Fold 5-formyltetrahydrofolate cyclo-ligase.
Amino acid sequence: MTDSLSLASQKHELRKLALSRRKSLPEVERIEKSLELADHADALPLPPGAVVAGFWPIRDEIDPRPLMDGLRQSGFRLCLPVVADPHLIFRTLDRGTALEPAGFGTLAPGADAPEIQPDALLMPLAGFDRLGNRIGYGKGHYDTAIAALEKNGPLLCIGLAFAVQEVDRVPVEAHDKPLDGILTEKGYRAFGSYEP
């Protein structure tokens, strides 16, 4: 019990550190760095025609929307996560899809948009390390979704973050799945041995 409390405490402190670094970026710099993500789209190891789950940015997160639009224009199908029980579900995002509040300040396609199984997740996060370990926001939404989605086949998990969100070492728990890669404004770094 003490070990898990210690890990949770370490993650909490690292989360605070990484998020304070992110928050310290001036707004204009966050916008510019978000736009730079799209410059690195070709480096992503996405299978042709893949269904890619993005996310609607909240607070001072890196904004994936320019990247997602570039992926759409390159022939990838898009979807967004919706908080549901027992785990996130993903609904198709097409041009003109009506979006509605989906909790935590995000927007997502409504119930009339079809559910879809993503091949790749572009994931928000609080922090990451050089081995691809990530710190989420502590709710476990992506952990449970990844576990459910992987039962249906390979899943490419790519974190999206500002480079300043990198920390020295993320403590790992049994349920933690490392990222296959991270995309920051500086480019794409592969970690895993993802095989489609």
Residues 2-190 form a domain with the Rossmann fold fold (CATH 3.40.50.10420). DSSP finds four helices and eleven strands in the chain. The mean pLDDT is 91.
